[in-house]
Amino acid sequence: MHSFTILLLCLVATLTLSKVISRPGCGPLCAMYCEYGNVMDSDGCPICQCKESPCEDEQRPLEGYFCGSGPSYRACPSTHHCLIGPNDDFAVCCPRR
């Protein structure tokens, strides 16, 4: 059983490393803070332009709602879903598709 586990771990590590190595290198990024992150180029690299919204297709989040953890929590209405940013940077209600 231990041999199988070690073999499986080696296989997963190899596949993970091969995906990281095959990605194109992204150039340096300008030093500006973007609340919702940077716009990505066609290669998946961030460019020096801020995203206007964290929601899909740059749709505007619903104002007055915070759907993350905390005392000011307010659940999104059924027409929207909660989108929480990495590291809890933001928690907004985005329109459902």
UniProtKB/TrEMBL annotation:
Residues 1-18 form the signal peptide. It comes from the Eukaryota. InterPro entries: Antistasin-like, Hirudin/antistatin. Residues 23-50 form the Antistasin-like domain. It holds the Pfam family Antistasin. Transmembrane segments: none annotated. One of its GO terms (molecular function) is serine-type endopeptidase inhibitor activity. Keywords: Protease inhibitor, Serine protease inhibitor, Signal. This is Antistasin-like domain-containing protein.
